[in-house]
Design brief:
heterodimer, A: 232 residues, mainly alpha, 12 helices, disordered C terminus, B: 103 residues, 4 helices, 76% helix, elongated
């Protein structure tokens, strides 16, 4: 339950960010109801606010949320039932629900944990969005006077922080950040962010170092053939 | 209306990612490279978003009061502060820096 309380301020931060990017209250809420994926929403809205193309904003959000595929994989055994139930529950497949559910040993409790956390998070996230979007009625002076424009970088940093534990993560983050910053003055808004995704390829190539994640799992004899041809 | 197109496109794409396995691919495994890339992508993208949202303004590289907020946010995160504290500290530090005369 503490998870759903903790997400409330992040919902508020998204509402503020959406409002600052020029979205209406309805659009901000539309994101939180229909997309329901915090980091992807925030990234897409940030690109929109910078004047980027819709395609760049969508691509940035989707790349960031590619991990939902893996969460769906982790949750699939616990989400059995008729297709319409699975279709409905799939909307709740996010970081937090997967974390809570996979912490339960009993498959039935996995399902209950997933559903309960999902519903609570959904409500908390959407109420937070409305509060944030309504509180900031796009008053430009207020945004800069109260330092509200610093909320977005801080929120991104808070999301990034737990992803800097391993050395391969840190290397990828550093390369991605430098690529994006170098491109920012010359490329259209949103494109530098997408280019940062290329950092995964670059760091993956140099990833034969001592990092634990760079070591192929035992028995994975086919691993070398997975490198892109141009790596040789 | 760019925002509405982004909303609809992102909603459809995100839902497809969430529902792919539970709805369609039940029981199958994802290829290892997909899992690894999906695990590492957020670090690259979020790091890029942090720097671009802090140090650019209309496509120009700038260092202004937001940088002070970012440093404050990092300090709060290093002390394991909860999200709400991180964000409020960043906003407050930026506001103070502006009041003190930073751009």
């Amino acid at each position: 339950m503490s998870v759903s309380l903790a997400i409330f301020p992040f919902g508020v931060a998204f509402g503020v960010a959406a409002s600052e990017a020029g979205l209406t209250l309805w659009q901000a809420s539309g994101f939180s109801v229909l997309v329901f994926a915090g980091s992807a929403q925030l990234a897409a809205v940030d690109v929109v606010g910078d004047g980027g193309l819709a395609v760049s904003a969508i691509a940035a959000g989707l790349l960031l949320n590619l991990r939902a595929l893996a969460f769906g994989l982790a949750m699939a055994p616990a989400l059995r039932g008729p297709w319409w139930k699975r279709a409905l529950w799939s909307q709740f497949v996010i970081d937090e629900t997967t974390a809570v559910a996979t912490a339960q040993a009993d498959p039935r409790w996995r399902r209950y944990g997933f559903l309960l956390t999902g519903v609570l998070l959904f409500v908390s996230w959407n109420v937070g969005t409305v509060v944030g979007a309504a509180a900031l009625s796009s008053s430009g002076d207020l945004v800069t006077d109260l330092g509200i424009d610093a909320v977005i970088p801080a929120a991104f940093l808070a999301l990034l922080w737990p992803r800097l534990v391993r050395s391969d993560q840190r290397r990828i983050a550093a390369v991605g950040a430098l690529v994006a910053l170098a491109l920012a003055p010359v490329a259209p808004p949103g494109v530098p962010i997408l280019a940062a995704a290329g950092a995964v390829v670059v760091a993956g190539r140099n990833g034969a170092g001592p990092g634990p994640a760079a070591t192929p799992p035992p028995g994975d004899a086919g691993a070398p053939t997975e490198s892109p041809p141009e790596a040789t | 209306m760019t925002a509405t197109w982004v909303l609809l496109g992102l909603a459809a794409g995100t839902y497809a990612l969430k529902a792919a396995v539970p709805l369609a691919l039940g029981g199958r495994e994802l290829p290892a490279p997909v899992t690894r890339v999906a695990d590492l992508l957020p670090a690259a993208l979020l790091a890029a978003l942090v720097l671009v949202s802090t140090f650019t303004d209309d496509g120009r590289l700038v260092i202004d009061a937001r940088a002070v907020g970012l440093v404050a946010a990092a300090a709060a995160l290093a002390r394991r502060a909860p999200f709400v504290v991180v964000v409020v500290v960043a906003a407050a530090a930026t506001a103070l820096a502006r009041a003190a005369g930073a751009a």
